[in-house]
Automatic annotation (TrEMBL):
Residue ranges annotated for the Band domain, each copy included: 46-205
Membrane-spanning ranges: 30-51
Family: Belongs to the band 7/mec-2 family.
Pfam families: Band_7 (PF01145)
Protein name: Band 7 protein
Source species of the chain: Amphibalanus amphitrite (Striped barnacle)
GO cellular component: plasma membrane
This protein's UniProt keywords: Membrane, Transmembrane, Transmembrane helix
Compartment(s) of residence: Membrane
Length: 276
């Protein structure tokens, strides 16, 4: 027997036997069958019901669940007057958890909202074990979100949303298993911080960026100074390299479209004074 069938058999204490309801149940069942036979074919419009592919019907006879679990999809038969049924939608549903004011572990108040995807996994249990499975799941999701985030620090909430969503999904799924509800996915949508905290975090981030920029600029100047020192050493060893650099400088000056042209002195002339 499957797990769903086993759970259904636990809650489905009633059977097709009317004897469970005593002599009164037997008489009412016989009267219902006589009523159906006497009003043929008009009674067929009342006795036959249809549920869609995504629906299931949970049938009660004289207040007891019928054995065999939920009916559907397709057509099924009910006895008038003594049987009634409840349609259950088996499709995945989604609801938004309203923003919850949560005090984190490091004493910061944040507002967090989430979205929950769930479906009815066992129609019989969802009707017999809980008054309103959908409403109960919504309330439980709000409580679970507050309780779980209350044990986290702010940086954990901001940086580990996937882990929080997975933990919340597992917690909800285990709690709603007895209600016939399967929680498929939970996603944390938004984490809203107080305005003062946002400004403090923005100032901290700006200071960190400025510090990184200064470090990068200092590293660049250090590398540039080492490169200049190496270039000076090379030019010192080779006078022709200094002459070539001089000619490149003249070329650069001539390439610029300036109204004033400066003719530097020949480098050989300057070198005489340098030697002296």
């Amino acid at each position: 027997m499957s797990e769903e069938g086993r759970k259904a058999s636990v809650v489905a204490v009633g059977t097709d036997n009317s004897g469970d309801n005593g002599l009164c149940g037997v008489l009412l069942t016989l009267i219902s069958w006589l009523l159906v036979l006497c009003t043929l074919p008009f009674s067929l419009c009342v006795c036959f019901r249809v549920v869609q592919e995504y629906e299931r019907a949970v049938i009660f006879r004289l207040g007891r669940l019928l054995s065999g679990g939920a009916r559907g999809p397709g057509i099924f038969f009910i006895l008038p007057c003594i049987e009634n049924y409840t349609k259950i939608d088996m499709r995945t549903s989604v609801f938004d958890v309203p923003p919850q004011e949560v005090l984190t572990k490091d004493s910061v108040t944040v507002s967090v909202d989430a979205v929950v995807y769930y479906r009815v996994s066992n129609a019989t249990i969802s009707v017999a074990n809980v008054e309103n499975a959908h409403h109960s799941t919504r309330l439980l999701a709000q409580t679970t979100l507050r309780n779980m985030l209350g044990t986290k620090n702010l940086h954990e909430i901001l940086g580990d949303r996937d882990g929080i969503s997975a933990s919340m999904q597992n917690s909800l799924d285990s709690a709603t298993d007895n209600w016939g509800i399967k929680v498929e996915r939970v996603e944390v949508k938004d984490v809203r911080l107080p305005v003062q905290l946002q400004r403090a975090m923005a100032a901290e981030a700006e200071a960190a960026r400025e510090a990184r920029a200064k470090v990068i600029a200092a590293e660049g100047e250090s590398k540039a100074s080492r490169a200049l020192k190496e270039a000076a050493d090379v030019m010192k060893e080779s006078p022709s390299a200094l002459q070539l650099r001089y000619l490149q400088t003249l070329n650069s000056i001539s390439a610029e479209k300036n109204s004033t042209i400066i003719f530097p002195l020949p480098i050989d002339f300057m070198s005489q004074f340098v030697n002296k």
